[in-house]
């Protein structure tokens, strides 16, 4: 496999990939329009607590599914970094991928709970940024090019910088940050993350979460909206 390398001036293409991916998530796997009010009003406290701590109760299926997906993506990321890390520029202070994304309810609740655990001044600062954040802005969690809630960042953020396999009409194409993998002639298949497959898994995890809650929103909501959620 010898993929065509994205050029440096295509760095913005990574944002395009993420935007297309979000559109696909909303059109292909999901239904009605997003509503923060729905999520805020209907999610049960027990599930909120379980998900936000990434599964303190191993017997809870919703928490288990989410924890397991996070673990799978992180394990894949470690595999890539162990093998190809010398060719990657990703690291603290690199925030080129941190645009304002959208998230599923299951991720939104994890983020909202993360916000609730912060010191009041930090919490207020995040909510101020979130309240004024538009779709074209940088992620409101970004402070001095660092993620304020890195430990509970959404799934898509855990794929930043990784080589991706993206479904397309002619069978698929590869994409990655053009700052990464310089000097490599090829990227072995085992290091490619199949985005379509990941999207299906994430949509499934969210459905499981919603089923446990009996209510909720099946569509993605802006990350800023998640940061403004008030959890009871
Ligand atoms: S949640 Fe964190 S990692 Fe994800 S886009 Fe925002 S700042 Fe970046």
List the helices and strands and how they pair.
Layout: H1 11-28, H2 36-42, H3 45-52, H4 61-84, E1 102-103, H5 105-116, H6 120-131, E2 142-143, E3 146-147, E4 164-166, E5 173-175, E6 193-194, H7 195-213, E7 221-222, H8 223-227
Helix pairs in contact: 3-4, 3-5, 4-7
The structure holds iron/sulfur cluster.
- What structural category arises from helix and sheet content? mainly alpha
Overall, the morphology is globular
- Percentage of residues in strands: 5-15%
> Helix count?
8
Major sheet: arrangement of strands: 5-4-6
Q: Report the mean per-residue pLDDT as an integer.
A: 79
Total beta strands: 7
User: Portion of residues in helices?
Assistant: 40-55%
Task: Name some characteristics of this structure.
232 residues; two-stranded antiparallel sheet; single chain; 7 strands; disordered N terminus; binds iron/sulfur cluster; 8 helices; three-stranded mixed β-sheet; mainly alpha
Question: How would you describe what is shown here?
Answer:
The structure is a single chain. The chain has 232 residues and is mainly α. It has one domain. It contains eight helices and seven strands, in the order ααααβααβββββαβα. It has helices at 11-28, 36-42, 45-52, 61-84, 105-116, 120-131, 195-213, 223-227, and strands at residues 102-103, 142-143, 146-147, 164-166, 173-175, 193-194, 221-222. A three-stranded mixed β-sheet has the order 5-4-6. A two-stranded antiparallel ribbon has the order 1-7. A two-stranded antiparallel sheet has the order 2-3. A hairpin with a 2-residue loop joins strand 2 (142-143) and strand 3 (146-147). Helix 3 (45-52) packs across helix 5 and helix 4 (61-84) packs antiparallel against helix 7. The longest helix is centred in the N-terminal third of the chain and has 24 residues, at 61-84. The protein starts with 10 loop residues before the first helix and ends in a 5-residue tail after the last helix. Iron/sulfur cluster is lined by residues 98, 101, 139, 141-142, 147, 153, 157. Iron/sulfur cluster binds next to loops.
